[in-house]
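Practice record 12: protein with pyridoxal-5'-phosphate.
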Amino acid sequence: MAWNADLKLDPASGTPVYRQIADAIVAACRDGRLSPGMRLPPTRDLARRLHVNRNTVVAAYEALAADGIVTSHTGRGTFVAEPVAAPAPARAETGDAWPSGFSRAVEGSALAGLLSAYRVATSSEGISFAGSYPAAELMPVERFRVALDAVLARSGAEVLSYGSTAGYAPLREWIAGAMRGRGSDVSADGILITNGSQQALELVFRTLLDRGDPVVVEEPTYTGALSVLGSLGARMVGVALDEEGMRPDLLAVALERHRPRAIYVQPTIHNPTTRVMSRRRRLDILALAERHGCAVVEDDWACDLRFEGEELPALHALDGGRRVIYLSTFSKKLLPGLRVGWAAAPRPVLERLVALKQVADHGSSPLLQAALQEFLRDGGLEEHLARVRPAYRERRDIMLAALGARFPGGVSWTRPQGGLFLWVTLPEGVDGNDLFVAARDRNVLFSRGGLFHSDGSGQGSLRLTYASVAPARIEAGVAVLGSLIRERLAGAAAGPGPRAADGLPIL
Ligand SMILES: Cc1ncc(COP(=O)(O)O)c(C=O)c1O
């Protein structure tokens, strides 16, 4: 039955009509009548069918888009965005009995969407290619303990007190020095230390955007950025990539049409596609941003994790730090548990970021920042990188060899020059959501492509992390995926393709 066949609107109800329409769509998402990627009727058609003004339907779609339940694309329509599971564990966890309501950012299916984006498998029995974690067994635990002991012994009371909101000064100095070494014009007072670069993303977008403001994102892009933007009610305008990175022709149209305040990009080892933006493309993007008076938010999460290819300058270095806000992190190259990332930004932006950081948490842990700085000062990072880069390259090669041996023709994948994962494109007839369910039943997990798309698409792709998986398990897990893909291809050749299961799982 069509999701809106029995939809009855009550103009006399205290609930505005647009909200009744939006609620009906949320209900249809919950009970499976609408599923991710499905297109909603054009506003004009639905308005005619429901005998309401078209603006009422537009308002309903906008409210749903603000909650991250649907995504709208000029010229293509409005699509259901995220998997919304019928059993809705999120509701049970938060308690249905809560009496006074929630903000729209965490209401109903918006919450389910956020949880689905963030919950990552921790099953020790299975093989997980999901998440983007560094290898736990390669972590420099002992060396970090020595650094921690040293700062506690030397300046215990100082590092156990509240610190500066902008961050521990010697760590800001170290970071600014490292960035200058890569050609950026930046000093310590242009750096804000954050709780991971996830917080940097949140503070930056909060600083730049109001609810409903457009922002350009690469399509696909990092799930965590999509979640931040969704929770802030930003309007995401996806721009496709080609082999060289974000396409400047499409970016030019998006800038012209939507007049966004910011473009969010990952030029080096893009998550999830692993592409590296060419030098020429970097300059093109900066020139377009300049022409349209737009900020560029550069997420350089993998800058030290390249094990191949030419080192290219960050957009921040190319632009002289004028309109680029640069974010990076110690999570992937070192220790995610420190929760230390940073933003480098021009003074007016930094001032505001610091103000919002103060509101958020009064500053990151001085103890952990000081221990990290001690570790960095003593050369701990270089030593660690010299260990992990070859290990990650070896794991990448093991995964590439396993994919070549186990995956059928028609599947393609990237050969990343660094980082923690690679990106797989499935052939026609194989649905990534369906594959996910089948693989999970065989104790193999991966990140579904749909998580990285702002437009509800991505069912034909998946991301496989190799860095945190032991070599023998890489081969075993890829073998399982290969056999499941073959089964599906055989099924597709024999008849209609498999349908993605309702109540899509989290990851
Ligand atoms: C592209 C990208 N940016 C930012 C982050 C945030 O990481 P963290 O908060 O640990 O620095 C991640 C984590 O996966 C990421 O992949």
